[in-house]
Design goal:
Elements: H1 7-21, H2 25-31, H3 41-53, H4 55-65, H5 75-90, H6 95-108, H7 115-135, H8 140-144, H9 148-157, H10 162-169, E1 175-179, H11 186-195, E2 200-202, E3 209-212, E4 229-231, H12 234-243, E5 250-254, H13 260-268, E6 274-279, H14 282-295, E7 300-303, H15 313-317, E8 322-328, H16 343-346, H17 349-367, E9 370-380, H18 389-398, E10 402-405, E11 420-422, E12 427-429, E13 439-446
Parallel strand pairs: 5-6, 5-8, 6-7, 8-9
Antiparallel strand pairs: 1-3, 1-4, 2-3, 9-13, 10-13, 11-12, 12-13
Helix pairs in contact: 1-3, 1-5, 3-5, 4-5, 4-7, 5-6, 5-7, 6-7, 9-10, 12-13, 17-18
Amino acid sequence: MATQKNCRAVAAQILLKVVQDQQSLTPLLAAAQDKIDAKDQGLLQALCFGVCRHFHGLNALTKILLDKPLPEKAAVIHQLITVGLFQLAHSDISEHAAINETVNATEQLGFPKMKGVVNAVLRRFQREQEALLDGLNSSDVTRFNHPKWLIKQLKKDWPDRWESICSEANEHPPMNIRVNTHKLNRDEYSLLLKGAEIEHETCLLADYGIRLTKPVSVHQLPRFDEGISSVQDEAAQLAAQILSPQGGDNVLDACAAPGGKTGHLLEVSHGQANVTAMDADAKRLQRVHENLERLGYEATCLVGEAQHPENWWHDELGGKPFDRILLDVPCSATGVIRRHPDIKLLRQKEDIAKLAALQLEILEKAWAMLKPGGQLLYATCSILPAENSQNVASFLQKQNDAKLLPINDRVSNLKESTYITDTGFGWQFFPNQNGHDGFFYALLEKTV
């Protein structure tokens, strides 16, 4: 395919698929890499992520600045205008380059006659920028760049925190790495980072975590290819730390792809736990294989649905009960919006009840595979109680052989704060600009 020099045009096409066709941004970006010059790939990602992050405000501005709605066949031009407005309002790109390149993109998109419209909209925004941006503060949707349904839900669930949650979700996330302390301790790896002139600090909660002051390519991380370190958010690193599998333990990592937690479970057990990594998606399960290969560990990888263990537990694993189960269930991902801002455009209100029902079903099915005295860690990257504490409360109410365990003794410095709360049925972590993503953990023990 011929290279397209103007990545604004490619960005508009991608954003149209996100907004109109409800497709996920990450695979769309991956598929578009061959359409633009290598030097523009970072810009393409910045444009697409930036528009998704500020979409509700940019979309409102586009509607205000257009004299009349664009015809349906020109919907991609609407998205192109949001790309242009993002550059002018939220980027360091020069106004001259932003306007000229965005206007020129109309030709590649097959709408050369729209040049005048796009130019006029962007020039008007230049002139009236301050007043137009101030006007966005009149609505919570455009002020916080979150969908109305989610803001309403956050106000109900977290009346004293919802503004902070929304604001933090719009920030750029930090880059955290996990040190494989089976091979090298954290202080030793810190010295390697200093030698590579990579500024960093140790994570507050994760015993294996290091936060970089500025993101770098994984190829710059010392001995990354040897499996000494992995990129993983601090909150996600707590899963293996809390579950703490020992050598010889039979461990299930359900919904395992892409395998970050699978690898960490093996690191914590010094490669001695018998880990089964299961996922419903065979293609995504391949990522688990790749991650384990880099780390130098082995696990049993199988395709299966966590809510249907009858299709794989006995046939594939002989029905042997597990000592430890990590249940990182499918969720709304509302705790990682800052890493995947398209979630704000893709997730719908009606999804939450469906997800909560699926999560509870998975929890109940997994419980039957846990041996007496065994422990199960229920985890999500959601910040909605319907998927988290309410599910755990419902489960405990009807499961008389289940006990909620404290995790304070397994997580360094864990205490309630602006970004962490003990719900009484598990710990809720909220996104923190200088720390962890939004996450939820509840550790359960089977008593009989």
